[in-house]
Write a structure and sequence with these properties.
The structure is a homodimer of 182-residue chains. The first copy, chain A, has 182 residues and is mainly alpha-helical. Chain A folds into two domains: 81 residues, Winged helix-like DNA-binding domain superfamily/Winged helix DNA-binding domain (Arc Repressor Mutant, subunit A, Orthogonal Bundle); 77 residues. Chain A is built from eight helices and two strands, in the order H-H-H-E-E-H-H-H-H-H. The first copy, chain A, has a two-stranded antiparallel sheet with strand order 1-2. In chain A, helix 1 crosses helix 4 and helix 7 packs antiparallel against helix 8. Chains A and B meet through helix 6, helix 7 and helix 8 of A and helix 6, helix 7 and helix 8 of B. Chain A binds a DNA duplex (28 and 28 nucleotides) through helix 3 and strand 2.
Chain lengths: 182, 182
DNA sequence: TCCCTCATGTAAGTAGTTACATGATTTC
DNA sequence: GAAATCATGTAACTACTTACATGAGGGA
């Protein structure tokens, strides 16, 4: 998963390890952490496997290593990204896949987003059933805060569903946050 | 962190490993995963350290092991939970701490929630600055989906802030999801 | 001159997953 | 009688974090 994300960063441009880390952080850094102790060995491994090429360049006294995906790298990346949504492996970190989804042709992309949407709506339905069975009155402190975590999950799922519906239609992002209430 | 969560589950009642896993999953299972290959060794370790007691009981032909926190266990748990909010260690998984927050006296609890709120609002402010500098027109497919991930983070942070404000005041949970738009 | 960012790497240790392994109880 | 759930454990492997280690470049 992390390997695919790395390959996905260097499909169209040469980047250094440092750049790759920054790009990931700028996009999904609030929800996905990368340490450089994880990244540099991964770059080595992916280069050895033939999924990346490495191109050393001197800049002043600094030796920089620029990486880019090979054809083999692009192929395994697209295989991974094209695969149908699987709650077991994609349930967490679906955000990573969506972050990269622009690399897929529109038809496949839409299909994948429909699967994500279906999945989140199913989950939401399950939480709605649970929610109806809950008693939210006369709660102890303990119960109040335990339940608050449930409501947090519930809210998150609602908003995720809303977001997927929005981007599935590729509606303009500028209006995304304003339209919360519609 | 996981260790404290486990101790937190058995402060007031004896539970089996299996029960502990279920309780965690029911509360925060959508956002925090527990494997039993992680739990059973942890129960052993925490018992060896003197933070839990273990009490074996035969039920039919099944040997069940009931765990409960010792005074030492309760002490380290409360130390951990009472500690001021630290973005480095609590930034992720603040949900775990809030899940257990009912164990703290109201004053400390409120102080901790104010810290969480302050932190999320600061982050939100940062994202607002970034958002204003973004151009969201004439995006390539690639750029559209990369940015969509940014907006997801943004939305999440907005909702988290809203949620923290809500539970800080201990307002009735039943009304939480309805009041999205106010 | 100092500090921050850029830039790359290793290595020890920690944590976690997955599969292996087994068997009882309950529900349909 | 089959399937799902209850119940506990180990062990190999994988992944990740953290600290160690080094140094250049740019701006105040």
């Amino acid at each position: 998963m992390f390997d695919y994300l790395v390959i996905g960063m260097v499909l169209h441009e040469e980047l250094t390890g440092y750049d790759i880390k920054k790009r990931i952080e700028q996009g999904i850094g609030h929800l996905y952490k990368v340490s450089h102790g994880q990244l540099y060995p991964a770059l080595k491994k992916l280069t050895a496997k033939g999924y990346l090429t490495m191109n050393e360049q001197m800049q002043g006294k600094m030796l920089k290593k620029y990486y880019m995906a090979t054809e083999a790298g692009k192929a395994v990346f697209l295989d991974w990204l094209s695969a149908p949504f699987d709650p077991n492996t994609d349930g967490d970190n679906y955000l990573v896949k969506i972050f990269l989804l622009g690399e897929l042709p529109k038809e496949i992309r839409t299909k994948r987003l429909q699967e994500y949407e279906f999945y989140t709506q199913q989950l939401l339905g399950q939480l709605q059933v649970v929610e109806k069975q809950l008693s939210t009155e006369n709660l102890s402190d303990r119960e109040y805060f335990e339940l608050s975590a449930f409501y947090f999950s519930y809210q998150l799922l609602q908003n995720t569903t809303h977001w997927i519906q929005y981007i599935k239609e590729e509606r303009p992002l500028a209006g995304f946050l304003q339209n919360e209430g519609d």
